[in-house]
Amino acid sequence: MMKVCRACLSDKLLYPLEEEIVTEYNKLTNLNIKISDGMPQFICKKCKETINEFVKFRDKSHSSETTLRENITPVILETQIDLKTEVKTDEEDEDANDFQTALDIDIIGDISETKNLLVEKDLIHNLRRKEKQSNKKSRANQIGIKNKHCKIKNEEINRSLQCGICTQDFSSNILLSSHIETHKNSRNCELCDRKCSNWAQLLAHRMEHLPNNQQRCHICSMYWWRNSNMELHYKIYHFHQGPGWKCEQCLKQFEKPKKLYRHMNVIHGEIKFFCDYCSKGFRSKTSIAVHILKHETQKHLSCDLCEYKTKYHAGLLNHKIRYHTMSKVNCKTCERIFKDQESCDKHKCDKATTVCHVCGIEETNRKLLKHMKKHNPESIYKCHRCPAEFRTSNGLKVHINRHENNKTKHCEYCPAKFYSASVLIKHRRTHTGERPYVCKVCSKAFTGNHNLKLHMRVHGEFLIKKKNKDDVTIV
Fold first, then answer.
1. For the chain, which ranges sit under pLDDT 70?
2. Cα atoms in the 13 Å half-sphere on the side-chain side of 383
3. Which residues does the annotation say bind Zn(2+) (predicted)?
4. N or C: which end of the chain has fewer CB within 10 A?
5. CATH of domain 1-82
6. Whole-number pLDDT of residue 153
7. What is the pLDDT of residue 105?
8. In whole angstroms, what separates CA 292 from the centre of its chain?
């Protein structure tokens, strides 16, 4: 049976068909498919989300239609009744006016002038109707104006502008603005005892203590829904300062408030999400979503240039840059790999180094974790086929590949295959001509460090130490 999506024939991120999905799919397409009908029994993630969106849209439409039918029908009847009453009143007015014209004709008694009088009465009748309509509009406008004035007066009476830094209230914006300037030399909030680093941050912080209709800039009444954006507004437009934000807990600088907001949630935020498999806590949804992939056994993502498979999108992107990109560039500071020189130049790295307390070597924080395993004899990985032991899981994987004769590393210049990435890197230098290991005595260059150590025998230095056959190898 083909392992493809039943809807779009895709072979990525497949899920088995379920009864609920099949029924909704049949309602949407009128195809009447069934489970175990000899056709592909899978559906991709995108099509599954599309069907779920269709179900939500259908349910929402049904609920909206029922509410509309329940609420709009009596309103239509009321409008019809009002129209009937208005027609009756208009007919009564017309009958009264016709009766008046008949009396006038009888009083005058001149049959020759009846036609002219009727024309004049029609004109008078139309003028009276227009006057009535204009009077109604003027009355409605007067009533509306009175209501507006009453609302404005009530708002002015009930309105109290709060300071947000202290407990005082004011009746006008002028008094509020002059009072806020008295807090300019202070950096402490009197309502929650918070200490702010600058005046703009204190003004942005006061929004937390104000009601929703007063959370605006006290100078220009501009509204921002996030305090960091309000702080940026005060700095640029009112204080003419350059943008810059500092984390109050770790004192790290950021160029944009969005990056500071993300840093506070990821690094210093509360742990809100917990893994169902191992109960590990995380501060964001994205972190726990990436973590859950560790517990999955199937690798959904695969490289289209080789047989590499992974669970992570970042791992697939890093693999393509590292092994299938000819113009890749390494950052000399943090040793990160980029696809070209332009992206490497845009990169800003902070190389935070730490000194090992055992041997005194200085390494980056990422490399120091691997380095500390050399000083810990308990952190070793044992091979289940031979007595070999390793300090890293990667070393054990390479060793097992040698047992199984599984060469997973491919050269992009020739058909050669290797067990480990270090041997592939050394082999690749034979194609590129790179020789980074240079002899300090005769300036001869080599592709690998081992070749340089062998060469140093010529100068009387024996740098390679042989191991006894009885010793267990710990790599």
1. 1, 72-128, 130-132, 134-159, 240-245, 248, 257, 350-353, 365-366, 377-379, 465-475
2. 21
3. 5, 8, 44, 47
4. N
5. 3.40.1800
6. 43
7. 45
8. 19
The C-alpha atoms of residue 423 and residue 330 are separated, in whole angstroms, by 19
47 among annotated binding-site residues:
yes
383-475 — its CATH code? 3.30.160.60
**How buried is residue 48: exposed, middle or buried, by Cβ count under 10 Å (0-12/13-18/19+)?**
buried
442 is in an annotated binding site: no
Residue 251's pLDDT is what?
A: 72
Q: Hey, do 1-82 and 383-475 end up sharing a CATH topology, with the first three levels equal? A: no
d(Cα 223, Cα 214) in Å, to the nearest integer?
9
User: CA angle 457-459-464, nearest 5°?
Assistant: 30
The full set of domain ranges for the chain reads 1-82, 118-153, 161-243, 296-346, 354-378, 383-475
Q: For 77-122, write each residue's pLDDT tens digit.
A: 443 444 444 444 444 455 545 545 444 444 444 444 544 555 555 6
How far apart, in whole angstroms, are the C-alpha atoms of residue 340 and residue 5? 36
Q: What is the pLDDT of residue 98?
A: 52
The Cα–Cα gap between 472 and 381 comes to 13
Query: Given 3.30.160, 3.30.70, 2.60.40, 1.10.3470, which CATH number is that of 296-346?
Result: 3.30.160
Reduced to 3 states, what is the DSSP secondary structure of residue 222? coil
Annotated binding residue at 8?
Answer: yes
Beta bridge partners of 438: 445
